[in-house]
Amino acid sequence: MATLVIKDLHVDVDTETGPKEILKGVDLTVSDGQVHAIMGPNGSGKSTLAYSIAGHPKYHITQGSVTLDGVELSALPVDERAKAGLFLGMQYPIEVPGVSMANFLRTAKTALAGQAPKVRTWPKQVRESLARMDLDAEFAERSVNEGFSGGEKKRGEIAQLELLDPSTAILDEIDSGLDIDALKVVAEGIKAFSQRPGKSVLLITHYTRILRYVHPDRVHVFVDGRVAVTGGSELADNLEEKGYEQYVG
Amino acid sequence: MAQPVDSGAEAVAAAVETPASHLHPKVSWDLEDHPLPKGREEVWRFTPVRKLTRLLSGEPTDHGFEVIAALPAQVSLGTISEARARVLSVEPPADRSAAIACHNTRQASVLDIPAGLELDEPVELTFRGTGVDERIYEHLIVNVGRAARVKLVFRYEGSTASAGKIDVRVGEGAQLDFVTLSDWAPDALRAAQHSVRVGRDAHVRTVQASLGGAVTRLIERATFEGSGGQLEQFGLYFVDGARHVEHRLFIDHNEPHTRSEVDYRGAVQGEGSHSVWVGDVLIRKQAEGINTYEANKNLLLTPGARADSIPNLEIETGNIEGAGHSSTTGRFDDEQLFYLRSRGIPEDEARRLVVQGFFVDIIRRIQVPDVEERLMAAVDRELDVIAPEIGDPR
């Protein structure tokens, strides 16, 4: 199961001049087996939604709730949210010097599963996931995200998604900065994940391009910290044609 | 990696690029030239001078390190008179404790690595102190003959108060990896001067790992003899439990087309713990075409810990290939912790990974496999000790 329910979510972000409200009452349900896309102009709060659900310390939920299969996420520490089944694919994955991808993946898998992955099969699984993302096996020996190109970082995120196998994936602008070949590889990975049983995906994007490869069940347009309009994939086509202006102001 | 912290009491990262010759005190064998420090002098201002008093004055003693060494047949360790040692030294003492070490040394030692000797296995010497009430003075000359290729590992351990002067002369075209692993007992006091002379076209890599001891103050100086010499200096230190670890480096680019690269990293934790790193590089007028870069990174693991980090660059010629430095001191990077935790890794384990990675990053550049493994194990041991205490620093 993988049903993500967001109810009346209000979120403040820390700024130099004090807290500022970014999300002003978000209501959204992504049911088990579904892929939803969130689109919106810069500054509409799309990324804030992703980071606050994952528990980034800069964001504070002031009102409302986020549940994953009935488990309230907002009360849990960051790592417990991951254990509850959440995965956040980041727009700018963070570099962790000196920690190899292999060590990182094994540590994360062990923490999530409660036991170390099998020595006999795990390295092969890692190699295969990397290969599907067009990443060399030597990638596993490199420090987490360090010196990776923008495209490598994004493909690395999807390889992690495959290996860590959460129930719900929130992918924050995973498509930005990718050339068309990398975009197809990443989209294939997302599609394959969403077709596993008991998964759901919340795909946050600024562009409609990725939606040609990953077909969402629902599209939400995000404006000024709320869902302004919800529809099917025709909504994305409409945005492609007319832009966000029609919803802003 | 770390987020900069700008509160002055906890971090100093000032880069001074003005001539700072007062930072290079006059070297001299004469004790009179090194008056007892009061603690306000530029080169002593970070040091807890009072705790080191025993190493700054006093008479010779009968104590010495217990030396454990299984040396290859071609390598010899012998004793010489202090007078002879002075002739063989790279340079005279640069501070009071090194001057006292030489003044009070009754017999100096010399480690000879003959020209052309190539060894794959590291040559290891362990120096063990056998009581903190003892004072030990040592003066050691290391001679690496021309075109030799060796790895030298000095391991210091046990409980003692020691003042040392170590002069390392590296011959033309030689390759030396020189690792100093200081794993002192918690009450040990150590003040030492290491002076390295890099021969023409020689390649010297030093590793300074300072892991134990109550107070450690190391003066590391390097100079070149002929052009084409290369020097890499790596350092790592763990400071906890109100300890003091100080590294003061001085690289004298006195010859053209020489290179130096410095990277020191430290983790400091606990009320009253203090690390000091001062890196001075002098590029003399004749040192054309040189390249130098020095970096120091400090990770403050808890409140109350302090790291001072001061790189200095003194440039007398503009006709060089490159010169630079960087210094960062900060707490855990929230973004790194968030990233790891968002993958399900619990907070304490995430912190451990970040600190491990911080050191692995430098350890893997040492390229002496046996030493890399041992340093990793040492880092793990330190992490076992401090891990329960690495709470959220705020």
Automatic annotation (TrEMBL), chain A:
Transmembrane segments: none annotated. One of its GO terms (molecular function) is ATP binding. InterPro entries: AAA+_ATPase, ABC_transporter-like_ATP-bd, FeS-cluster_ATPase_SufC, P-loop_NTPase. Pfam families: ABC_tran. Coiled coil: none annotated. Keywords: ATP-binding, Nucleotide-binding. Residues 4-249 form the ABC transporter domain. The keyword Secreted does not apply. The keyword ATP-binding applies. Belongs to the ABC transporter superfamily. Ycf16 family. This is Fe-S cluster assembly ATP-binding protein. It comes from Propionibacterium cyclohexanicum.
UniProtKB/TrEMBL annotation, chain B:
It holds the Pfam family SUFBD_core. SUPFAM superfamilies: Stabilizer of iron transporter SufD. Residues 130-358 form the SUF system FeS cluster assembly SufBD core domain. InterPro entries: Fe-S_cluster_assembly_SufBD (IPR055346), SUF_FeS_clus_asmbl_SufBD_core (IPR000825), SUF_FeS_clus_asmbl_SufBD_sf (IPR037284), SUF_FeS_clus_asmbl_SufD (IPR011542). GO terms for biological process: iron-sulfur cluster assembly. It comes from the Bacteria. Belongs to the iron-sulfur cluster assembly SufBD family. This is Fe-S cluster assembly protein SufD. It comes from Propionibacterium cyclohexanicum.
